[in-house]
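Hi V.,

You were right to ask for the full record rather than a summary. Here it is.
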Amino acid sequence: MKQRGSVIASLLIVFLAALCLGRTVITISDLADMLRHGSEAQAWFLAYELRLPRLLTATGAGVAFGLGGAVSQSLFRNPLAAPEMLGVTAGASLGAVAVLLTGLAGFGAALGATVGATSATVLLLLLAGRQPEVSRLILTGIGISLTASAVTGLLLSRASDTVAGDAMLWLTGSLNGRHWPQARLIWSVLPLLIIALAMLARSLDRMELGDDLAQSLGIAVHLTRPALVLTTAALIAAGVAVVGPVGFVGLMAGPIARRLADGADPDLIGAAMIGALIMLLADLMVTLFATYALMPAGIFTGLMGAPWLIWLLWQSDKERKAA
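Predicted structure:
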């Protein structure tokens, strides 16, 4: 509980810092003036119309990615597992790029990402069979991911330089240009997905013990696993639809949350908060270090995630040798 309080405090501090810092600094007195005078305050447009929706979008996407990563790691019983292994991210990217190449953007790209993610998920469950085992899900998901990535590359190779550049920027994952429509979209879907995941959370704990033991405890594995896959896919699709395929967030959030909780069971609430914190930190890094370049947030999550992945690999190797 103490660690969770620290994460909440960090979330609030980073959120406030990202809201106030930038080319134009918003002071605490400016925020107080906004609370008193509303839209008539001088800082209203900058804080409320530009920065706040971007930060709410980042928070919502971080929650979605963090939960998706934590469920994936429990589902595959591997701390190195990531939602990308299901092929959902690559499917969403393919759908969004296909729409972007037609000249549409905004909600068109979000719709394309949703359709792509849904198609990849349906294909995954069809190819994995009625009672998909973990190994079969992983191999099928990797196959779908590689195929979708190859098709995406083919589409980009045939696009004009301008359109291909815009698509590549989206594929990196960016918070630039995110406004209230994106914030409303992610926060209208997220509560429903969280409720669905809460209903499956107890089964997820049991399934980490293995299929045979989970079935002996009364868990219908053949129904629960596809339900968890669908919920994870929906979470990833929601996040990708509004910010693009931001890398490493799902990979980092789950293990960090477990270590902070000092437990073997998945900490879904902690993973959601850590995912949101990572996204807000990435946005703050853009604000502090790339104010004029407007670099994609995915670059900074990659800079955070790559060392974390190396450390996880080293830790896993160390634990294996000790055993």
